[in-house]
Amino acid sequence: MKYKKRHLYIENVSAERLARQFDTPLYVYSYNKIKDNINSFKKNFKTINPLICFSVKSNSNLKILSLINKFGLGADVVSKGELTRVLKAKIKPEKIVFSGVGKTVDELKFAISKKILLINTESENEIMEIEKIAKKIKKKINIGIRFNPDTDAKTLKKISTGRKENKFGLIKNKFLEILKKYKESKFVNIICLSVHIGSQITSHIPYKNMLNAVNKIIQQSKYKFKYIDLGGGMGIQYKNNSKKLNYLKYNKLIKSFLKKNNSKIIFEPGRSIIGNAGYLISKIIYIKKTNSKNFVILDSAMNDLIRPALYGAKHRIVPSKLNRQKVSKKHEFVGPICETTDKFLNIRNYQKINQKDIVVICDVGAYGMVLSSNYNLRPKPAEILINKNLAKIITKRQKLNNII
Ligand SMILES: *Cc1c(COP(=O)(O)O)cnc(C)c1O
Predict the structure, then answer these.
(1) Is 169 in the pocket of ligand 1 (CB under 6 A)?
(2) So what's the pLDDT on residue 152?
């Protein structure tokens, strides 16, 4: 994304043209940004040669998943729906892992029938269900066990998953107990230890604590895991100059971990692959002036992008056309939905903007469209993929007729 002669371009297509041609609100993704993100992720971890499984819950668009496949990644899925979608995108079963605390028997059977690499289990109940299925079909099923390392990810509270009070994984004693009980099982083959401590992590320190905890429990268990699945969580920069995860340091920590534990590393990145490759193009419907601030009412709302309302996340909002007039009064960017939390951003010293202007909400590629809804009976936006000059519809805008 860059300004050329004061007009905002995503790759070689201007935001204003996109708004005109495809209407707003509109999700737009950059093909080359996705490609660059994947290449730099691979490069950062080149020396440990991991299996990289894209976290499909961050963005499950079929065309995007096809790109993910084309660029060589596998997939981390959390439902039958996601598993069906990634198979349709031609991602190979031997590159698919299935995570989640509450997979149903139907989902487990489906995953087993598709012969995916492994199912990361999170409770003894779940392992027992898998054993039952295995017994019936007379096969041994590859599973992982998710470990809860009781590590603070130092991120937004609502996206932390690695503390003992969170529902995810098994804490130390329980993990060891279950490992001991099932390691000789005739029906499950424990090949993986998995962890995932949270999302939008911008320091290597939580990862260091996580690796220490994983190392400790492996030494205690004296068990050889073929795979160690370290999850995802790598943070991105939602603000210019905000803190950045030091991948070199994280990679170094993993390298020294691997000296003690000779396993294959799996990653499940979502946000770091797709987050900054997505934009939400919006139009200003009205500007309502009050004494203390101006409400900038967009045609995008929390049903299109819920992260600000749900997590208190802040996304940059940039104008499609730059001018040199600054307004010192506070602007509050909001959506039209009848909820006080339907707001995106408070900002001072924004440039002068007008009704019908186009603005772009940035870094919405992850946990954007996937979390959209029809709240207030609003149709979901279209999705566009841009590759240089080419802009293609990858999801059509929902028609009001189809949701009424
Ligand atoms: C959400 C999730 C991920 C992806 O997290 P990001 O922060 O998007 O990288 C990976 N693994 C599991 C188990 C998850 O729940």
Answers:
(1) no
(2) 86
Report the nearest atom of ligand 1 relative to the CA of 200: 7
Q: Are residues 324 and 398 in the same domain?
A: yes
Same-domain status, 99 and 125: yes
For residue 308, the 8-state DSSP code is: H
Q: How many CB atoms lie within 10 A of CB 401?
A: 7
CA atoms within 13 A on the CB side of 347: 19
The mean per-residue pLDDT over the stretch 335-343 comes to 97
- One domain for residues 35 and 67: yes
Q: Is 365 in the pocket of ligand 1 (CB under 6 A)?
A: no
pLDDT band at 41 (very low <50, low <70, confident <90, very high): very high
Q: What's the pLDDT score for residue 166?
A: 86
Query: Tokens 């297509």 label which residue?
Result: 13
Please say if the pLDDT value at position 267 is more than 90: yes
Judgement on whether residues 150 and 42 belong to the same structural domain of the protein: yes
Q: Is 146 in the pocket of ligand 1 (CB under 6 A)?
A: no
What is d(CA 306, CA 361) in angstroms, rounded to the nearest whole number?
12
Q: pLDDT (tens digit, 9 = 90+) per residue, 8-17? A: 999 999 999 9
Domain boundary among 244, 271, 298: 271
Domain that holds residue 224: 31-271
Could you list the active site residues?
Answer: 338
- CB-ligand 1 contact for 268 (6 Å cutoff): yes
For the CA of 269, the nearest atom of ligand 1: 9
Closest CA to ligand 1's atom 11: 231
Report the CATH number that the domain containing residue 255 is assigned in CATH. 3.20.20.10
Residue 218 three-state SS: helix
Q: How far is the CA of 153 from the centre of ligand 1 (A)?
A: 13
